[in-house]
Amino acid sequence: MFQISRRVDYAVRIMIELGMQPEGAYLSARRVSSRTAVPKAFLHKITADLVRAGLILTQTGPSGGLALQKPSNQINLLDVVEAIEGPVCLNICLTRPQECNRDRFCPGHEVWGRLQMMVVAELRNSVLADLVLEARRLQKNPRTALVDFPYIYAPKVNGSAVPKEHR
What we know:
mainly alpha; 7% strand
């Protein structure tokens, strides 16, 4: 299955939580863990990657914890994904020219390339500040219906699956 890793999901949760804090405010690792449901063992490993990428700061002591290194409008999801997983690469043939000896005549090569460009563009255009705003909105008004989401498996409404043509 083609999907983001749990580490990326956790990293995004952490970044949103830190983005919800006043600029320059530190939040304890314990509080970040409880608010995001990220286990502390994962939290420390993920935050180490985010620190290395220059996305967050850590400070020790009673008033320490974690904080964003730069404003949330200057951080995008591509920054977060690459901090955790490295460069986005949907297929080994897109690593560099002629990585795969079939790239000159493979009919799928252009499809993978277009798909990769779309994914990278969407991640680059998804700014943390927008996710923070959405998180605040959802805290006040959670979604009531999930039928319109592009789920792989049909969601159930009143106990029965929604027909594909109505999704």
